[in-house]
Specification:
This protein is about 30% helix and about 30% strand. By secondary structure, the protein is α/β, with parallel strands linked by helices. The strands form two sheets. The chain has a seven-stranded mixed sheet, sandwiched between helices. Strands 1, 2, 8, 9 and 10 form a five-stranded antiparallel sheet that branches.
Length: about 240
């Protein structure tokens, strides 16, 4: 990722150094909104949504945090004695993680992650990061890849939200547009902007619980349970079949 494209990294780095920052999300239909921003990315455990806090009970010893951002989950688990590897496609986000004390990091996009078999016992996709799997075919491909990389009793801890739990007419219109194009309703094409920095456009996937079950089916995983967070957000605990 070129420096000019690392909007999220610059946002995290500036916030880490005490600056007042604001993240802007731009969708490909022209819809623009401000996110919760780095306050959520740096939040301490006691400020996490209840479902995310409960989900940490399912973490096992060797953890891969996919899209680790500023490191809130990775650093929490590392502090509990877990062996955590954080990956992100943002070089500056990884720099923030290192400055904050995360020992194992790698700059790599989620769809290019590759580790030997039995490398991890837990894969973390919190902060709606199931969305990093982008679309149904890629999500199923990545779930199979995670299956190969993990131990027989591994878990995936995945955060998402039900995109259809909304009365926003712009979102509902976007869902209808997606259906006419053969896309999932919550498959959004967005970019992140901060000051003069802008990420490339990318697909990000929000799914209902039923859609989550459908995507997971046949990949070697199944949904063990759902943990509700606030509003339409939830965490899915996935475990291996058999």
């Amino acid at each position: 990722m070129r420096d000019q494209e690392d909007a999220v990294g610059h946002l995290d780095w500036d916030y880490y150094r005490g600056k007042d920052v604001q993240e802007v999300i731009e969708r490909d239909d022209g819809y623009i909104d401000a996110s919760g921003g780095p306050q959520a990315y740096f939040a301490s455990f006691r400020h996490w949504p209840a479902g995310e806090r409960r989900a940490m009970r399912h973490a096992r010893s060797r953890v891969l945090d996919v899209g680790c951002g500023a490191g809130r989950v990775a650093l929490h688990l590392q502090g509990k004695g877990y062996e955590v590897t954080g990956i992100d496609n943002s070089p500056l986000a990884i720099r923030v993680c290192k400055h904050r004390g995360l020992r194992r990091t790698r700059v790599v996009p989620a769809d290019q992650v590759a580790f030997p078999g039995n490398s991890f016992d837990t894969v973390v996709l919190l902060g709606n990061n199931f969305g990093l799997l982008a679309n149904r075919p890629r999500a199923r491909l990545m779930l199979r890849r995670f299956h190969e990389m993990t131990s027989p009793d591994a878990h995936i801890i995945a955060g998402s939200l039900n995109p259809q739990d909304t009365d926003n007419p712009f979102h509902l219109a976007y869902h209808r547009r997606n259906r006419t194009r053969g896309r999932m309703p919550g498959q959004v094409r967005i970019r992140v902007r901060y000051q003069l920095y802008a990420t490339p456009w990318f697909d990000y996937l929000f799914v209902s619980k039923a859609e989550m079950r459908g995507i997971v089916r046949g990949t070697g995983w199944h949904v063990r349970e759902f943990l509700d967070c606030e509003g339409p957000a939830y965490v899915a605990i996935l475990e291996k079949d058999g």
